Structures are given as structure tokens and as C-alpha cells.
Amino acid sequence: MAVWWKQSVFYQIYMPSFKDGNGDGMGDFAGITEKLDYIKDLGIEGLWLTPFYPSPKVDNGYDISDYESIDPAYGTMEDFERFIEEAHLRKIRVIVDLVLNHTSSEHPWFKKSRSAKDHPKRDWFIWRDQPNNWESFFGGSAWEYDVLTNQYYYHAFAKEQVDLNWANPDVKKAMFHVMKFWLEKGVDGFRLDVINFLKVQDQFQDNPYDEGKQEQVHLYDKDQQGILAVIEEIAGFVHQYPDKFLVGEVGSEDLEILKRYSGQDKLDVVFNFNIGSIARFDLTMLYQQLFATEQAYDSYQIPTLFFSSHDMSRHISRFGNDEDRAKLVAALLLTAKGIPFLYYGDEIGMGDWITTDINKMKDVQGIMGYQLACKAGKSHEEAIAIANGKSRDKSRTPMQWNAGLNVGFSEHEPWMTIPDDANKVNVEDQQDDPDSMLSFYKNLLKIRKQHSCLTRGVYEYLNNEDGLLTFIRNDQTQRILVMFNFADHAKAIEIDNGFSTLLLSNKRKSFNRKEILANEVLIVKEETGK
Ligand code: GLC
Asked: Which residues contact residue 490 at a Cβ distance below 8 angstroms, ignoring those fewer than 6 apart?
């Protein structure tokens, strides 16, 4: 049997915003379980859930205060077990987000650590008499003074997210216990949060400053020596359990760095931010990254494909609010070489939400951005603009199920604002419309499942010329050609005679080998006559 995750399309669920099942305005396990048939019908075979562990939710669950329980806001352990069982009944695997780099400042480990310099848990976190110049990735110093013991502790993110000291073997032991706990609960793998941050330089040298970009270069606080050995240990531990999958969030857009972390004995895959997080639509850059990834990866390495997540603007908004373009990006996600991760709501074309009301902002990065800007003397308007640039609330709004009360997400006031025009884009209206975004995604997922060359095939050809991105996927049993015209005008083309069966276009039912329409994607299969 082929490895399951190599054939699967993953769907990312942002826990608080998918579906409220118990009427308190927040998404939960009961809600997700209710929607498993929708997920199945879409053609999804893998789910990635963002953190659901008890947490003060300063960073919406990425600040865990208990690694082996369920946050009551999301349900009970029984709800979780029932969800896993129901997902597995539908042949949907589940991977869960695990934050090994830091705990909440409310975690008992940290409470003990901060209590006294000689407490056995002191060394589980990183304490220093004096801070160095390292900056938090959310802004400001990465060191927080703690008056209790007159030292500073290190936090790469918010001050409520305290970095664990992975140089201490007991930390590793505790985290292996956590992994074992969830593997035995039946999860199919983990998404490892900021996994390349686990080690920091033991000399604590100051980071250099990039004058051009006017920002700190994070030279000594990630990708440090010894990190690969830890990754290999984690991978070795998890892979003792058959069929488990590990995807790493390696916080970098640098392919040279990304490629260190996946492959034989390492993580199964990492998120390819070099492709997925391009800030605006730029076909040349996109092609260059697809091509460079293809060149850089060895035969054990498989790229991932994604264009949206809970940490970035949704691609439909980022790439110019154009529905046709969003369909082309969907086709790229599901036909190019790599493991696709589809972000909830992208399948109906949900867009970003922006607020001018700071009281409605939920994301710590946005709120911190606002506070730091105010402190630096910016006006309220300037500070709001800065906060909006940083805030990740934009892509975290409740899933739009129908045009009714709270877009069918909850009967209660939702935990986060629903955009004014949200009811215009929803699952119910698109379900039976053959031209909708949702139907297009379903068709793509079906085609992907029916054609092994789209999961297993190499790129026999990969080219970008004259604004046309073209590739041929080939797995020795079949060949499929995919051509994208991202331009606003039709173009003359030449497609070989063999490619005669149009599997899908976003524009028409039959095709013409000599022309591709404006904003069209053609997915064409070769007929071999066999
Ligand atoms: C990852 C998560 C992000 C979180 C950060 C700190 O990047 O995806 O949402 O804020 O880690 O845990």
C-alpha cells in the first residue's frame, strides 16, 4: 500500500472558526464532527487541526497550558475521541498541531521554573541575568524581566509564550510523553509548530542588523547547531508508530534552509513558504520557486503546496480579489507536484476581513503592533494601519455555511466578528451551482484522486513562457498537461495531438488546442489509444 499522506489532500481547520456545535459562539469538536460529511464530500482525506489544548489563548491556542487535555471551549476528551472515530470511519486521517518550542506562561512547568532559581524546573526555560538584543517575532524584545527572581526569560513570540530549553534532556522526555499520549489516542501525525526554533545559540551572541531592510537578522535564534539531531530524534520516535506523518513549520522562506529539514530520517515534509507565502501574485517568482524546489529536493523530499493559512492573508485577497485567478491558484494547488494543504473557506472563495476598530481585533500580533506603534508616537489611524498589516485576524473569520444567522456558524454571537458581506459567499449557495468555486474545487479533487500521475508523477516538463505556466505530470502510466493563462487576454497555443481529453477548464466544456482563453486553466489528459 502506498503511503497514505502522499496521496492525500489536507484541509486546515482553524479550531475556533469552523463550526460551533454547542451554541457558545466558538467552534468545537462537536461542530467539526457534524461537518465531516461535508469534508468527505469535498474529497479531503487529511485534516490538520490548529491547537485545541487548554490555553489562556493569548495566541489562540499556540500558548498551551496543558499538553494532554482538551480545552473546555472545544469540548471534552470524549468529544475528541468521537471525532477521531468518526473521521476514521470516513477514511479521513487527522494530524494535530503541536507546539514543542514554547509553553504558555500559565503552564505549571513555567510557574515552577519562575518560582526560584534553584527549582529543578528552572532550567526547563531560558533564563539570563541580562538580555541580549534578540527581538521577538511579534515585535519588541524577546526577553521579559521577572521580578520574582530578578532575571529575564526568553520568548521568541509573545511574552506569554515562554521558550522551552531543548538543551535540557528532561524537556525532550516530557515532550516525547506528550507525543506518545496523542499517538495512542489515534492521531495520524503532527504539524510541528516553528520547529526550527527549538535550539538557540548557547553563547547568546547579539543578532546582526540589516541596514537595508531596517530589521534584525535572526541569525542566532533559529536554525542553530544541533537542531537536526533533535529533529531526527523526534522523527525516529514518531515513526516507530506505523503510518504516522510529520509536517514541520520551518519558519523560513529560504529554500536552502527549508530543504535541510525533510527527507529520510527527518520530517516527512515541511511547509514550502518559498512558494506559499509570496506576498502578491507574481507568476515569474512563483515559477522560479516551483522550479528551484524541484532542483533542490532529492528523491526522498516532497514539496508542500498551500497559498493560505491562519498566519497569512487568504490568497483570493492577496492576489487581487479575482475569482478566476483564485480558481487558477486552486488548480495549481491541486495539480502541481506536492502535498496540498487547503485552508478552510478557500474552497468557497472566502476573503480577508479588515477592521478599523481596535476593540474588535483578536490577534496578539495585531494588538501588539498597535500598542508598539502608539508607544512610538504614531497617530491612531497610522497605528491601526500598522496593526492591520500585522493582524492575522484577516483570514480567521467564521466559516460561511449559509446566508442565515451568523452565516450558519453559530446560533450565538460568534467569538469573532463576521464580515458585513459574508452571507454573499457561502457553502449552501454554492453546493448545487456547477460553476461555483466549491464545485470547481470538488472537480479538481476528484480529478486528482482519479489520476495517479497527479500525485505520483514527475514533472516531465515545467515551463513559464509568455505569461503561460505549463507542466506535464507523468507517472509512466499516464500523462496530464496543465496550462494556466494568468493574463487578461486569450493566447495562441500549440498542444500536441495526443492530449485530447479535457478533464477540466474553469471556462468551458470543450477545448481548442490552438487557443487558451483569458484567465483559463486547461487540464488535459493524453489518450494513448490503449
Ligand atoms: C506558528 C503558528 C502561529 C503562532 C506561532 C507561535 O507560526 O502558525 O499561528 O503564532 O507559531 O506559536
From this structure: 515, 516, 517, 518
- For residue 406 the three cell numbers come to 451568523
Average pLDDT value over all residues in the chain: 97
Residue 41 and residue 438 in contact, taking contact as beta carbons nearer than 8 Å:
no
Whether 67 lines ligand 1, by a CB cut-off of 6 Å, is no
Question: Which pTM does this prediction carry?
Answer: 0.97
Catalytic machinery residues:
193, 249
Q: What is the pLDDT of residue 191?
A: 98
Q: Tell me, yes or no, if the two domains 4-103+168-353+410-444 and 457-526 fold the same way.
A: no
Q: What is the DSSP string of 262-324?
A: BSTTSBSEE--HHHHT-SS--HHHHHHHHHHHHHH--TT---EE-S--TTS--HHHHTTS-HH
Asked if residues 200 and 219 have their Cβ atoms less than 8 Å apart, the reply is: no
Looking at 3.40.190.150, 3.90.400.10, 3.30.70.120, 1.20.1530.10, the CATH number of the domain 108-161 comes to 3.90.400.10
Q: Is the CB of 187 under 6 A from ligand 1?
A: no
**Fold of domain 457-526:** Immunoglobulin-like (2.60.40)
Q: How many Å separate Cα 218 from the centre of its chain?
A: 22
Cell numbers given for 430 = 454554492
Centroid of chain to Cα 348:
18
The whole-number pLDDT of residue 530 equals: 53
Residue 515 pairs in a beta bridge with: 492
Burial of 219 (0-12, 13-18, 19+ CB in 10 A): middle
Q: Is 63 in the pocket of ligand 1 (CB under 6 A)?
A: no
> How many A from CA of 60 to the centre of ligand 1?
9
Half-sphere exposure of 199 (CA within 13 A, CB side): 14
> Which residue ranges make up each domain of the chain?
4-103+168-353+410-444, 108-161, 354-396, 457-526
Average pLDDT (318-325) is: 97
CB 507 within 8 A of CB 484: no
Q: What is the Å distance from ligand 1's center to 194 Cα? A: 7
CATH number for the domain whose boundaries are 4-103+168-353+410-444: 3.20.20.80
What is the pLDDT at residue 2? Answer: 80
Q: According to the 3-state scheme, what is the secondary structure of 51-76?
A: CCCCCCCCCCCCCCCCCCCCCHHHCC
Calpha distance 199→353 (Å, rounded) = 35
Is 193 close to ligand 1, i.e. is its CB under 6 Å away? Answer: yes
Cα maximum dimension of the chain: 78
Contact 131, 125 (CB under 8 A): no
- CB of 7 within 8 A of CB of 45? yes
Q: What was the pLDDT predicted at 1? A: 59
Mean pLDDT of the region 220-232: 97
CA distances from 279 to 52, 273, 386 (A): 29, 11, 16
In the block, cell 485576524 appears at 393
Residue 528 pLDDT: 84
Atom of ligand 1 nearest to the CA of 310: 9
